[in-house]
Fold:
Amino acid sequence: MTTGAPELAPATPANIARAAALIREGALVAFPTETVYGLGGDATSDRAVARIFEAKGRPQFNPLIAHVPDAATARAQVQWNGTAERLAQHFWPGPLTLVLPRRTDSAVSLLCSAGLETVAVRAPAHPVAQALLRAVGRPVAAPSANRSGAVSPTQAQHVAHSLGAGVALVLDGGACTVGLESTVVDLTASQAVLLRPGGAIREAIEAVIGPLATAPAIGRPGALHAPGQLESHYAPSLPVRLDAVAAGPDEALLAFGPDVPQGAALTLNLSAAGDLAEAAANLFAMLRALDRPGLRGIAVMPVPHHGLGLAINDRLRRAAAPRPPPH
Ligand code: AMP
Ligand code: MG
Structure:
């Protein structure tokens, strides 16, 4: 087990090969995907998966996504169906995770799926993630590479700041282009269920497979939630105040759009042009940059709820949710 800050290395072919060997030996490697940086470990090894929970300080064993290079490798782990096939054809590789029944001969560790009879699979599009997954040759469990509950990392440096002991290597592949976690869709019932909004937008998914049912937790604070859908999540240290139309001199302001109120101690704009894709890519890095000691909180201007705005608002709502008591 390593201590202190993990080694940061550019994502060259040689370092990707080294990272793959480390994962095959049971070590943890952080790597870029188009959504956020993932903390990768061998998904077929209980011990490697346990190390992921330990490194993140996850209070519970929430199920993790098993990352694969393509649909053919996913089919070896889960009971594939026609809906999965259509979605994979449209959105893979990309920011869409599919929850499907586990195959009886699946190699994915039960700890990875938190003992569930289902497995979440995703084929990421990022070329470094693709190269790494092909070199590992096994599914890779990879939650976001940050301490549990904190803001997700969209740059390699964020990982080095958030995680230390237990991470053998951070592959630096630059800033993540999507900047939000994957959309998670449950395909185990007759109607597909949106478990988590994310980088693949709801309207585009519904255009392919028809209406999605909505998981109870989404948009309904306090409702019973599916595993992993913790209410307080993605949280900076400072309190977060939503739907702000003004900000005080002791507040940081996370703005959106061209009309920004004056008077905040510090202002960053998710997208001056009001572009939701640009806002998604900036969200987590800007929340981090505004999280300065000495301020009263972070005020956030309203963001529209359509397209990627669904996922942006989901993350902001959780960043603003009451924090659990320290444990
Ligand atoms: P993260 O790895 O932090 O991006 O989070 C993974 C997300 O996928 C969480 O919201 C989990 O609850 C969800 N997830 C993973 N596996 C399953 C599964 N088998 N069933 C339902 N949700 C899952
Ligand atoms: Mg996460």
Summary: Residues 143-144, 152 surround magnesium ion (ligand 2) (CB under 6 Å). The first strand starts at residue 7 and ends at 10. Residues 218-228 have pLDDT under 50 and may be disordered.
